[in-house]
Design brief:
Shape: globular
Structural class: mainly alpha
CATH architecture of the largest domain: Orthogonal Bundle
Radius of gyration: 18 Å
Order of helices and strands: HHHHEEHH
Strand content: under 5%
Number of strands: 2
Distance between the termini: 28 Å
């Protein structure tokens, strides 16, 4: 049991650290930070725009970190929004669309590299399994919290 816990935990931690390193490597060329990768990704996928709150929920980042990230993206000309207006809609500029297209292409290459030895069926099974583990642990955590009260 202990070995499974250690193997699982360390594998997830290593994977997260590698993803962060890749994001850092790819994004620093633009003078940005890893948090900007998912911000750009979600803004690219939502051309109608998103609010800071929506970005915070999608990226799992706290709202203060998203606010700082958006400010930097605006300074670089990648997004447009009114930071003084509550629930302002954030949209990509044309330069921001070019930036996110590059980032999305590089992200696809990273994902392909990570799963290159998988068959399509294995890849689907892996991501489904990861989703199930995530949901099961979320339920377990909620039960822990509920039973603590």
């Amino acid at each position: 049991m202990e070995d499974l816990f250690v193997d699982f935990t360390l594998s997830i931690l290593r994977l997260n650290k590698l993803v962060q390193k890749i994001k850092t490597f790819e994004i620093e060329k633009f003078g940005l930070k890893p948090i900007h990768v998912l911000c750009g990704y979600y803004l690219n996928k939502n051309p109608q725009g998103l609010t800071a709150k929506e970005l915070s929920e999608l990226t799992l980042e706290d709202k203060a970190a998203i606010s700082r990230a958006l400010k930097m993206m605006q300074e670089k000309g990648y997004v447009i929004y009114d930071p003084n207006r509550r629930n302002s809609t954030i949209k990509l500029t044309e330069e921001g669309k070019q930036f996110t297209n590059v980032i999305c292409t590089r992200a696809e290459k990273a994902v392909a590299a990570g799963s290159m030895d998988f068959t399509e069926a294995e890849r689907i099974f892996f991501y489904r399994s990861l989703g199930v583990i995530n949901e099961n642990l979320r339920t377990y955590y909620k039960e822990l919290i509920k039973n603590e009260k």
